[in-house]
Amino acid sequence: MYASNLRPANSRLWAYLPALLFLPVVMSPPANHDAAAVLQFSQRWLAGEGLYTGLIDVNPPLIFILNLLPAAIAAQTPISAIVALRLCVLGYGLLCWRLAWLARDNHAEGGVERAFLDVVPPLFLLAAGYDFGQREHLMVLAAWPYLLTAGRRCAGQAPRGRMAIALIAALGFALKPHFLAIPALVECAVLFAAYLRQPRIPSAIVLWLRTPEPWILVLVWAAYLALIAVAFSAYLSDVVPLARATYLGIGGFTLWQLLILPRLAAANALLLPLLVLAFVRPARRFTEPGGALPRLLGLAALAALAAALAQHKGWSYHIVPIEFFACALAGLLAASWLDRIGAAAHPPGAQKIAGTLAGLFALYVISNGEAPWKQLYYPDSEAGGLTRLLVREAGGGTALILSPGVYPIFPALNNAGITSTSRFTDLWPLQGSYPSCLPDGRRYRDPAEMAPPEALVWRVVAEDFAARPPTAVLVDDSPGIPWCGAEFDFIAYFTRNPVFAKVWQHYHLAGRWQRYRVYTQKDAPK
User: Fold this and answer.
1) How many Cβ atoms from other residues are within 10 Å of residue 132's Cβ?
2) Rounded to an integer, what distance in angstroms lies between the CA atom of residue 514 and that of residue 427?
3) Is the pTM value of this prediction over 0.90?
4) CB distance 382 to 514 below 8 Å
5) Nearest-CA neighbor of 2 among 341, 359, 356?
6) What percent of the chain stands above pLDDT 70?
């Protein structure tokens, strides 16, 4: 009774409030470390360094291409690169929100279901928290209108904006090859729905191929592969073999170790019963309006789980798509059930219920994620302290990075206005070259014994250091390499190279923060 007396504006605000509470979180430091590292590589690429020649990274080029926009904004305006990136992601999220609205079938939605589907796009946009702007986050934003469109296609409908939705989805899924599992399962489901409507396999295939979405997906991916082969051939010839030799084995888990990771285990515990509810006891038939969306969300969550397991790292942002699809599925099933029992007779009541479901979505994200805790404790965190040290010792300059990890190097460099001179975001090829102790007990290999990945790092770090002596050298005391009678020391390792050692004699220790040391040039003006 109380819900029906709410003013429409107040009830709508209640529905959107859980998502809006994340807005100051995603606009506050720290920026996500991987997003910040990719952004700086795009800035350096825009400034003239060669991608995959002077800048070496395991990511395919699409994410660097997309980051050229905030990099260009930062280069041409007073807006900082991090702020430009956040604004670009917000703009992209608003575009996906608009496309999701176009893809909807309001006539097939109950009152609570309609109100909940209204708040899913802002939740997907903002609830990523610390992982705002990660590739998984960008993919999920593109996937939502695509899933809504696929649900309409299962019912034989042609939603508005389908060409733009398919194009955005194709780009979102192309960010990582692992993401292609999602459209693969979804398109199989759409083909199955076509078979249910035309119970002959040839007719079903023809019916499926008459829709533009499969063609757009395949054409975009084919064009992207051709672009990589023609414009970024060094990625295929040099970076992929390097990544296979060193990167894939770093920090990996077995399947069972991944499955018992607390955050992934919690996501799976939420997802599995929801899949039963979505598939075993369907509320509507698969080909009826609105009947396919819960199943498609379940399939998307399963494909996201497969992608997370395939990457075998267990990092937080790998799990975000599973959580988002599962939470959206939970809210959708609850909303549909509440509509069936007549829980809300008026729109204000439906919006209040949707706001409560959105609040549960947000509560799950907060309890299992890193926001707002990283933002609240940022001043005393590794990233906050390192930023202050870098601003004091080398703010606005350049830095050579000798570390096995991206965080907290990034976003500390971005915040301090420092440009890395390293060809790698971190020393992952060196880390991957020492997965275990050497058999003869030595700490370091001699140059003549080095395999190509280690020899590459040994050579280019010294050559780049000599060619462009940076304002500072940032050294990580935790090398990410197994202890073998002594710690692996990056300075001891590289000063065995005469080219590096000659320049290193002009540097001295300027400051320290936790496990990080900053060296600056002895005769540099203060």
Assistant:
1) 26
2) 19
3) yes
4) yes
5) 356
6) 97
